[in-house]
Amino acid sequence: MQTGSTPHDDRAGVSANGILGAQARGASGRLLPEIWMQDGAKRVEEALARLLCAEDDGETELMAAMRYATLHGGKRTRALLCLAAGALADTPAHMLDDVGAAIEMMHACTLVHDDLPAMDDDVLRRGLPTVHVKFGEATAILVGDALQAHAFLTLASLNAPGDTPIALVRELAQAVSAEGAAGGQAIDLSLVGKHVELDRIVAMHRMKSGALVRASVRMGALCAVGVNAAHAALYCALDHYSACFGLALQVIDDILDVTADTAALGKTPGKDAAAQKPTCASIMGLQEARQFALDLLRDAGEAIAPLGPRAERLAQLIQWANAYLFKHAPRA
Ligand code: IPE
Ligand code: IPE
Ligand code: MG
Ligand code: MG
Ligand code: MG
Q1: Which PROSITE patterns would you find in this protein's record (predicted)?
Q2: Whose CA is nearest to atom 1 of ligand 2?
Q3: What kind of architecture, by CATH, is found in domain 13-328?
Q4: If you placed Cys at 175, which of 210, 211, 260, 331 could pair as Cys (CB 3.0 to 4.6 Å)?
């Protein structure tokens, strides 16, 4: 497998803003969201395929399972958030592609482990049998381990200035730590069958899902502008944006577990109720949870409004999330 991030094609040195060309803007000069999002997801998927390729040593079952877990679908929301934040400045596209790929590896790791029999015991993910169903439970555990390691290797091997790689590693590690996704997942499992106040669920959601979303935005911004006192206001706005956006994504996931079907979800619907998991949907009711998600997305938009046109992509991702909610959970 590859670990280096040497610019791999003729885009070396081309910025994330420059790579799309004039066709990405409509007649009004507005960036067309479908163009940059499709292009961004494709570039990150190419980076994933490259970084997880077998090279000369042949493909082991573990590597085949790692590729299965990462390369087959997914909305790529976290990678797109990273690219959108990276577009705040003229960050080299190849660097953002690899950072986005590392984030998606880590996200896939959390999904593979989340689906295990000892956790949510799910058989369907992204429209396919889950990794433990296809490859066995032991391999699925190792896929998570190896994807996590490979995400850090990808960041540590980045062709990036100064201490940027170590700062990126720190952000990603924090996001999946006991204060982040791992801690949130532990709380999630401890609440099964319990009556819980909404505040507790919100705090859990911020950890189990929100922390990686926050890191995705911060990592993109870190590639673009670095972290120092001069950018404190920018990071403050981005942190508010990503806190709202990340929580909204998990609230929407809770709602869609109730409202969407297998074809739309690529997962088995109704799993939260069947497993007696308290969620925003079960505690607030569908309509209130839906309004909560919409309010969070509005707050996310307000947080980045002062950043102006350079936050255009981040604003477009809010519109995308709104449309996704309206499509799969229409108002009753
Ligand atoms: C699913 O995330 C798990 C949550 C944290 C909500 P996504 O809904 O982003 O899953 P993919 O990557 O698109 O499959
Ligand atoms: C999982 O939340 C969050 C992770 C950290 C992976 P869910 O258990 O609700 O995610 P889905 O519904 O299985 O995708
Ligand atoms: Mg879960
Ligand atoms: Mg789950
Ligand atoms: Mg869910």
Answers
A1: POLYPRENYL_SYNTHASE_1, POLYPRENYL_SYNTHASE_2
A2: 114
A3: Orthogonal Bundle (1.10)
A4: 211
